[in-house]
Amino acid sequence: MKSALIDAYGIPEQVVRCVDRHDPGDPLEGEAVIDVLAFPINPADIWFCKGQYRLRPPLPAVPGAECVGRVVAVGPGVTSPRVGDLVINLQRENWCARRRVAASDLVAIDPQTDVAQAAMLRINPATALLLLTDLRRLEPGDWVIQNTANSGVGRWVTVLARRMGIRSVNVVRRQSLFKDLYERGADVCVLAGSELAARVRAETDNAPIGLGLDAVGGEGSAQLASCLADDSMLCHYGSATGLDPQLPRQELMVRGLTVTGFMLGRFLARRSPEDVHELYQGLARMLRNPVTHVPVQKIYPIEAIRDAVRHAQQGERGGKILVTPNGDI
Predict the structure, then answer these.
(1) Domains within the chain, CATH numbers bracketed
(2) Is the pTM of this model over 0.85?
């Protein structure tokens, strides 16, 4: 079968390659085998290839934080999922044509779900949901502000906030992105920059903002913090700049801001396996509404994995980069 593989950590498009590997074999008791239909290339995958992610398995290693697949075989004792089910895999190493995993790690979703969108279901939608529900108690009418609002997580935050009655301020670097965000339910869109706090106050009529979601880092963290009300919370969950968050100490000492971090796996681990499955099945049902869909710029075959990885690192893309290990979807 075809698989992407890295033999060393380094420049992603140089260290990743497409290889032929042994088929994973028949499922054992409690296992299932899936054909991987599609997987996205996420920032975490890029950091993984660089050797700068929190996980550094022994090499050679197969990258890939998420995928969507179809069950082709199940082992003894497996009643769910069933052969033919469309599933997402909660485990890693998904940049390959076929996976054999514990059946309990597969979440069966609506078979009519758009395959491209389902490939991006495991990380960004769940991250957005838990950022809005598990950090700070938010009531309808409350305000939240986020940077990188045009990212996969950011778009989902906008949609979910509107569904929950939470008002959102969405910070981006290009005004051309406003239209898409307003169509998804954004209340306010503003441009990033040194005058961010003044622009946000003007657009929200000085509304108190209780939660800030930061995926920029560096000075961007401080700019987002300056928009928050006293005794609010800033959550850092990613770094588009590659920098640690930087905040003046008066934000903590004088204004009483709480700074915290988010990692999806840590928050999911607080839930039972049944609750995790229900969470993803609920998010999958939301994909029936096109307003939740994240744009896809290009789909590559796995044989062109180096081109796909290179493309995924280009700035100001019009959408996500997907890869199909088993032909067109």
Answers:
(1) 2-120+294-324 (3.90.180.10), 129-265 (3.40.50.720)
(2) yes
